[in-house]
Amino acid sequence: MLRPGEVDSVDKLQPGQGCHRPRGLDQGCRLARAEDGTLYKRSESCTHIGCHVHWNSLERCWDCPCHGSHFAVDGTALNGPAVSPLTSDSYEH
Ligand code: FES
């Protein structure tokens, strides 16, 4: 059974969507597909002090619930207090 925010396959992630890890992938990662189809895999840990980010489907960015940082689909820090991007690899699928 999938939990909210999970997908069972990366292929089901549409442009502009983000999710928690698909089954079988690393724990602690987040995935988001940009409008151009590029898939980004990033750490779930906010670079401020490590809270877990969540996908904001309205604004299409990663939000940190602790102190309000926002990160772009590729992990770039948009609003502080975090100033560093979310870490991890990126790849196209
Ligand atoms: Fe994310 Fe502070 S831990 S903004």
Q: What strand order characterises the main sheet?
A: 1-2-3-8
> What integer value in Å does the Rg equal?
12 Å
* Helix content estimate: under 10%
- Total number of β-strand segments? 8
The distinct ligands, each listed once, are: FE2/S2 (inorganic) cluster
- Poorly predicted sequence stretches spanning 5 or more consecutive residues: none
Shape label: globular
Strand residue content: 25-35%
Structural class call reads mainly beta
What is the number of helices?
A: 0
The chain-level mean pLDDT equals 83
Largest sheet descriptor: 4 strands, antiparallel
Chain oligomer state: single chain
Order of helices and strands: EEEEEEEE
Span of the ends, CA to CA: 24 Å
Outline the structure in words.
With 93 residues, this protein is mainly beta. It contains no helices and eight strands. β4 (54-56) and β5 form a beta hairpin. It is globular and about 35 Å long. The model has no long low-confidence stretch (mean pLDDT 83). The structure holds FE2/S2 (inorganic) cluster.
Structural features:
8 strands; 93 residues; 4-stranded antiparallel beta sheet; globular; binds FE2/S2 (inorganic) cluster; mainly beta
Topology:
Elements: E1 18-20, E2 29-33, E3 39-43, E4 54-56, E5 61-63, E6 70-71, E7 77-79, E8 90-91
Antiparallel strand pairs: 1-2, 2-3, 3-8, 4-5, 5-6, 6-7
Question: TL;DR of this structure?
Answer:
With 93 residues, the protein is mostly beta strands. The protein has no helices and 8 strands.
